[in-house]
Amino acid sequence: MSTLPPPGVVITSPMNIAGAPEGPSQQWPTENKFLNGPFTPWHEETQAYDLPVIGHIPEDIAGALFRISSNPRFRPRNTDRYHWWEGDGMVAGLYLRDGKAAFRTSWVLTDSMKIEVEQGEAVYSGFVNGGTPGRLPKNAPLAKNVANTNVGIFDDHLLVYFEGGLPYRMHPRTLETFGTHDFHGGIDTLCTAHYKIDPVTGDMLFFAATGPVITWYRADARTGHVIESHAIDVGVPVLMHDFAVSENYAVFLVAPNLFRTDLIAQGLPGVVWDESVLPHGSQIVLLDRRTLKVTWHEMGDTSAPTHFFNAHEAGDEVVVDCHRITRLGTPASRLGTPVTSHEWFPPAYSWQWRVNTATGKVSNRRLSGIAGEFPKINDNMLGKAQRYGYFATTRSLAADTMTDGLARHDFRHGNTLVVEGPGALTNPSEPVFVARPGAEHEEDGYVLTLWWNRDTELSELLIHDAASFDSEPVARVPLPVRVPFGFHGNWADQAALDRAVAAADVDA
Ligand SMILES: [Fe+2]
C-alpha cells in the first residue's frame, strides 16, 4: 500500500480497440438476464485509491479481498443463448488496511482471451446453452478457459480458477496475468474452482473432473506440490462443480447435471439435466481419505447440489450441508429450446444429508425455508460442525437480480436471519468470512459482500460484524465501477498478501 498513488485517484484503462463501447458500461440489446442489470458487463480496468467510506473500516482488517466477476469482453456470438458461466473472468482486488480501501480490476489474460483480443471479437461458441458456432483461428486453443470462477492465494501465488482448464496465476498487486499453474507438474489439464484449505495443515484439497473420472488431489502447503491423488470413475460425465470435505472423507454428489462435450460440438447445450442416467437417483460418493475406499449411497431423490457449506462427522454419520436444486441444466428432452436465463436456476434451499457409514443409509432434511445460493462458512470450521452458515438469498424479489439479501443460518437453533441491503443496494455477492486476528469464537470476524446499487448501477463493498450480524454494516465502501455479478472469492490477510506480492515481484 505504501507504493500506491495519491489518495482519491481513479485510473481507468478503456478497452482501446475497434468495436469497444464508448463508455465503460456495455449493454447489448437482449432480454438475456445475464447481460443486464447487475450482470451488465463493465469494459474498463480500474485502479482507485483511498476510496470513500461510509462508517469505519475496522483497523483489525488488513489484507485483500479478491473476487472474480463474469464480464464478457466481447459481444457473445449469440447474446440470447449466452450464459453467466461463460463470461470472461475479471479479478477485483479490494485492498484494506489502516481503515483505508484501494481497488483494482483486471481481466485474466488467458491464451484464449489473447486470441479474441487479436481477432477483435468473440470466436468461441457458448458451452452451456449452445448457439452460434465458434470461428476459431488455427492457433486458437480448442476450448476457452474463461478463468471466471474463483480466485485466491495458495503456495504464495494468486491463482484464478475455472474447472475447464488450468488455474492462471496473477500478480496479487498489479493483477498482471503471468500464465497457467499446474502445481509444479502435479496436475495435467483441469482443476476444480472449489478447492478447500485444510485449516490445520494449510494443504489444498481439490479435484479435477474429466468426463466421468473424478481425480482427488491434496497439495502440500509448504511446497505447493501434489502429494496425494486418487481417481474415481463415477460412470457418467457429471458436471462436478463443488465438493465437501470432513475430517476423514471427501464427499462428491453424483447428480444428473451432465457436461456433454459431444453436444457442444453439435452446437447444442452442453449442460444437460438427464435423469435417465441415474435410475436409482442421485448418489453420494464418499472417498475415505485414510484408506482410499470409495462407497456409494443413494440420496433418495434426484436433485443436485449447487454449492456446499461444509461436511463433518458425528459418530458413524457423515453430515453434509449444501444448497439443493431440483434441476441444473437444460432437460435432455428439449435440447433444441434451451432453458432461458430467467428460468435457468430454480430456487435452491439449504439442505442436510446424513450418511450412516455403518449402514450405508442416507437421511435428509431441509434446513431453511429461505431460498438462496453461495453458502459459506468461517473457513476455520472446515470439516467440523459449524454453528453458522452464510448465503445470499434468492427470494425472487425482482426479475433482474439473482440475489436479494444476505442470510445467516444458525445450525444449532435452526433459524435463518436475513439482512436486507441498505438503500438501493441489492444483489449481494457470495459472503466471505474474515476471521478477526486471534479470534477465539466462530463468529468473531467480519462478513464481506459486494452489492449492486440499483440507482447508480455501480457496486459497493459492505462489511458486517458477524457477532452483530443484524446491525447496520460497520462500513460501506462505494466503488467507482460496477463489478458485474460473478461467483467466488477469498480473503488474504496482510502476511499472506505480502508473501505473494514478494514472490510475484521476482517473476514480474
Ligand atoms: Fe461455484
Compile the SSE list and pairings:
Elements: E1 10-14, E2 44-48, E3 54-55, E4 63-70, E5 89-97, E6 100-107, H1 111-119, E7 150-154, E8 157-161, E9 168-170, E10 177-180, E11 196-197, E12 204-210, E13 213-219, E14 226-233, E15 244-245, E16 249-254, E17 257-259, H2 261-264, E18 271-273, E19 283-288, E20 294-298, E21 304-314, E22 317-325, E23 330-331, E24 349-356, E25 362-366, E26 372-376, E27 388-393, E28 406-410, E29 415-419, E30 425-426, E31 432-435, E32 445-453, E33 459-465, E34 475-478, E35 486-493, H3 494-507
Bound molecules: fe (ii) ion (FE2).
Structure write-up:
The chain has one domain: YVTN repeat-like/Quinoprotein amine dehydrogenase (Methylamine Dehydrogenase, Chain H, 7 Propeller), CATH 2.130.10.10. Mean pLDDT is 95; it is low at 1-7. It has 508 residues and is mostly beta strands. Strands 1-2-6-5-4-35 form a 6-stranded antiparallel β-sheet. Strands 3, 30, 31, 32, 33 and 34 form a 6-stranded antiparallel β-sheet that branches. It has helices at residues 111-119, 261-264, 494-507, and strands spanning 10-14, 44-48, 54-55, 63-70, 89-97, 100-107, 150-154, 157-161, 168-170, 177-180, 196-197, 204-210, 213-219, 226-233, 244-245, 249-254, 257-259, 271-273, 283-288, 294-298, 304-314, 317-325, 330-331, 349-356, 362-366, 372-376, 388-393, 406-410, 415-419, 425-426, 432-435, 445-453, 459-465, 475-478, 486-493.
